[in-house]
C-alpha cells in the first residue's frame, strides 16, 4: 500500500526542499560555456573598448578646430587623420567628423559642420570599465555573453557543474531497445531513453544503467553502485501491487518521503533519498512517467543546475471541455490546431500515442474540476 | 550608398522567399534524432502492445465465469492465471480481475466483482496498429516520440539535414579571440562566435572561416570556397562607408536583394544570393549583428530546417516608456525585474553590455513610435 499519499503540489515542495543547487563547479573554455551558469561574479580585467575608437568612417580632428563650421562657412584644417570605423582616435584628436561633413582638398580638409568634443568617438571604457561586474553569480551564459567575455579577454570561465543523473530502469519484462525481437509479455525499455533525453535538455548529464530485474537486492545494489549521482531516477516498479520494490528499498537503505501522489496520470510515484541524494521513482507507464518528469524531475533538475524552471507556454482556447478529478492535479495532453487546444481524452497511462499526437499539455490545478470549452488556457509545449 | 533601403518586414519577406526548406535528408539512429524533423510520414510496422496485456496486477479469467459475482455472492473459479501488470493475457482468457476483487482459496479463486470482456486488458494494437501513421512528414521529434519509435522497433529514422551555415568574419581590425594581445585599433572577432552558437541553437550546423581582410577579392574567394553552404553569413563590412565590400561582391558574383534595412539597431544589413544560396551580410557592431540574427537569420534558418520559428515570449508591463523611430522596426533590450520590463536605453550598437544586462527584447513594429510606460508588451527572451 502507499505509505503516504501526497497532493501533487505538496509532493513537489517536498522534493524541491530536498534538492539543493549544486555547489560543485568546473572551469570551461569560454566558447564551450553556452547555457552554463556562472558560479562567481565575473568582473572585467580590462576596459572595452580599450582605446578611444572611431564610431564612424571619417576624419579625426581637434574639436576646437571645427568651431563655427557650417556649409556656407566651412573651416579648413591641416591637422586631421582619416579613420575608418573602429580605428583608434589618437590622443592628439578628440572628435571624428563624418564623411558627409568633410571634403579632402589636397592636403587640407574642408569641414562643414561643428564637432563637439568626443563627437563620433567611442571612448575608452564606454562599454565596460576594469572592475565592472559583468555577470553576477548564477547567470546563464547566452551566446552574446560569451562574446562579451571573449571581448574582455576572459578565455576560461568557472561555472556550476551539471547535475549527474543516473537512470535505473527496472522490470523483468523489459528488453533493451532493439536488442532482440520481443516475446509476448515483454516490452522495450523506452522510458529510460525518454528520461535521459529530457534530463539532458534540462541541464543535466544523464546516463542509464543496465535494466535491473524486479528484485530488491539488485535495485539496492544499483542505487549504491552510483555514489556520484546527484539524482537517481528509478523507473518502473512503483505500482501498489507486488512490484513495489523501489520504494521499499528506499525506506530500507535511506528515506522515503513521498509514496503515491494525487497526480493524473502519475499516481504511483515515490520520492526519497539515499545518503542525502534525491531518488525519484517513476511509474513504468510511459505517459505517467512523462507526467512525473515534467512535474517533478524538471523543476528539481533545474534547481540543482541553477537554472530557471519556467515552462514554455502558449495561450490557447479550449476546443472542448476538460474534465478532471477533484483533488488531483491533472496533466491533459492537447493538440494545437488553428489556435485552439484540442484535448486528447484517451485515458490509459500506457497509450503513448496520446503523447506523440499532442503538442503539449494543460495543467489542471488540484482545486479545479477541469476547464470549460472556450476557456483560454495555458498550453505547456513539449520540449 | 545603400542601393535599396527596405522596411524590416519587407526585407524579412524577401529573405524568407529566397530560403527554401532543405530537401536533403539523412538517416540517423532513433536515439540520436532528438529535435530533428521527419522527412517522410512514418507508419508503424507493428502493433502496440503486440499482445493482449494485463493492465493491472491480478488474475486472468474468462469474463463469462464472473457473471453475477458480488461481495455477498462470490463466484469460485478454477480456470484462472495470476498475472502482473504488463504480462500477456493468454487467448484462453479475456479479462483481468484486480487483486482487490479476488482472493486465492487454495486452488480456487474467489471473486467478488463481475468483469466484462477485456476488463483490465490492454488489447493488442490498442495504442498503435500496423500501418498507422505515427508521425507526419515535418514533425519535430521530441523525447517521447523517440521512445515511441523505439517501442515500434523503428531503430533508424530519416530526417531532414540540418542547414550548413558558413560564417565569414571580415575586417582588417579583427584578431581571433585570445590569439594575441590587441594593439590599439584592433578588436577580437566575437560576432562569429555569437553567430555560430545561435545558428547551432536554431537547428543548423555552423562553422566559421578564418577572418577575411577588407578586400573584395578575398571576400569573393571566401564565398566561392564554400559551395556546400546552405547559407553564408558575412559579418562586418556592411557600413555605407569605404568598407562596403560584401554587398558589392554579392552584386558582382550573384544577386543583391536588400541593401540597408529600416531596423534599429541593424540598419547596415544586406541580403543576396550566390549560386542560389542565400547570403546575409551583418553589421560588425555586435548589438546590431544580434538584432539581425534574431530578426532575419533565425526565421530563415528555422524555415530551412523545417522548424517552427515562434519566439519564446513572456508578457510584462513596461517600467518606462520606449521611444522609437517611426518607419523603423526597433528591437529594444529590456531587463525583467519583479514582472516589469525595464528598457535599457543605451544607444550605440557597439555597447554589448546593453545586451548582456538584458533578459530579452521588445519588438516595436514599424508603424508605432514606441510604447508607453505601463503598457503590457511581449518580451522575447534571449535564448
What does this structure look like?
Two copies of one chain form a homodimer. With 383 residues, chain A is of the alpha/beta class. Chain A has four domains: 6-24 and 162-304, MoaB/Mog-like domain (Molybdenum Cofactor Biosythetic Enzyme, Chain A, 3-Layer(aba) Sandwich), CATH 3.40.980; 33-47 and 128-160, Molybdopterin biosynthesis moea protein, domain 2 (Alpha-Beta Complex); 53-122, Molybdopterin biosynthesis moeA protein, domain 3; 313-381, MoeA, C-terminal, domain IV (Beta-clip), CATH 2.40.340. Chain A has seven helices and 29 strands. Chain A has helices at 8-18, 143-151, 191-201, 216-224, 245-253, 286-304, 353-356; strands at 6-7, 25-29, 42-43, 53-54, 58-61, 75-77, 81-83, 95-98, 102-105, 108-111, 121-122, 133-135, 156-160, 164-169, 174-175, 187-188, 205-208, 231-235, 255-259, 261-264, 270-274, 277-282, 313-318, 322-323, 329-337, 340-343, 360-364, 370-371, 376-381. In chain A, the strands form nine sheets. A six-stranded mixed β-sheet of chain A has the order 17-14-18-22-21-19, with helices on both faces. In chain A, strand 25 (329-337) and strand 26 form a beta hairpin. In chain A, helix 1 (8-18) packs across helix 6. The longest helix of chain A has 19 residues, at 286-304. Chains A and B meet through helix 2, strand 16, helix 3 and helix 7 of A and helix 2, strand 16, helix 3 and helix 7 of B.
Amino acid at each position: 500500500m502507499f505509505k503516504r499519499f501526497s497532493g501533487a503540489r505538496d509532493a513537489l515542495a517536498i522534493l524541491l526542499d530536498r534538492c539543493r543547487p549544486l555547489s560543485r563547479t568546473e572551469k570551461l573554455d569560454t566558447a564551450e560555456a553556452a547555457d552554463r551558469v556562472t558560479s562567481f561574479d565575473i568582473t572585467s580585467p580590462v576596459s572595452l573598448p580599450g582605446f578611444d575608437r572611431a564610431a564612424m568612417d571619417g576624419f579625426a580632428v581637434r574639436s576646437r578646430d571645427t568651431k563655427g563650421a557650417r556649409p556656407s562657412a566651412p573651416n579648413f584644417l591641416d591637422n586631421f587623420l582619416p579613420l575608418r570605423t573602429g580605428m583608434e582616435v589618437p590622443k592628439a584628436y578628440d572628435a571624428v567628423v563624418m564623411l558627409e561633413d568633410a571634403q579632402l582638398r589636397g592636403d587640407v580638409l574642408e569641414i562643414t559642420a561643428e564637432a563637439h568634443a568626443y563627437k563620433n568617438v567611442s571612448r575608452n571604457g564606454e562599454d565596460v570599465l576594469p572592475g565592472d561586474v559583468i555577470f553576477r553569480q548564477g547567470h546563464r551564459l547566452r551566446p552574446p555573453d560569451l562574446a562579451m567575455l571573449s571581448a574582455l579577454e576572459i578565455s576560461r570561465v568557472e561555472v556550476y557543474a551539471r547535475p549527474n543523473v543516473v537512470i535505473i530502469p527496472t522490470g523483468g519484462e523489459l528488453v533493451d531497445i532493439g536488442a532482440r525481437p520481443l516475446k509476448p509479455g515483454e516490452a522495450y525499455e523506452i522510458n529510460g531513453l525518454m528520461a535521459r533525453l529530457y534530463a539532458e535538455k534540462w541541464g543535466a548529464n544523464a546516463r542509464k544503467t543496465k535494466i535491473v530485474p524486479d528484485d530488491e537486492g539488485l535495485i539496492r545494489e544499483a542505487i549504491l553502485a552510483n555514489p556520484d549521482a546527484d539524482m537517481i531516477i528509478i523507473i518502473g516498479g512503483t505500482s501498489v501491487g507486488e512490484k513495489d520494490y523501489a520504494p521499499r528499498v528506499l525506506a530500507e537503505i535511506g528515506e522515503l518521503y513521498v509514496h503515491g501522489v494525487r497526480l493524473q496520470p502519475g499516481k504511483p510515484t515515490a520520492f526519497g533519498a539515499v545518503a542525502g541524494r534525491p531518488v525519484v521513482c517513476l511509474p513504468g507507464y510511459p505517459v505517467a512517467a512523462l507526467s512525473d518528469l515534467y512535474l517533478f524531475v524538471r523543476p528539481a533538475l533545474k534547481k540543482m543546475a541553477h537554472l530557471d524552471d519556467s515552462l514554455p507556454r502558449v495561450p490557447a482556447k479550449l476546443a472542448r471541455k476538460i474534465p478532471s478529478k477533484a483533488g488531483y492535479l491533472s496533466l491533459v495532453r492537447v493538440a494545437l490546431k488553428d489556435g485552439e487546444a484540442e484535448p486528447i481524452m484517451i485515458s490509459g497511462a500506457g497509450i503513448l500515442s496520446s503523447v506523440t499526437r499532442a503538442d503539449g499539455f494543460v495543467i489542471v490545478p488540484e482545486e479545479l474540476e477541469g476547464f470549460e470549452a472556450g476557456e483560454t488556457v495555458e498550453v505547456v509545449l513539449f520540449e
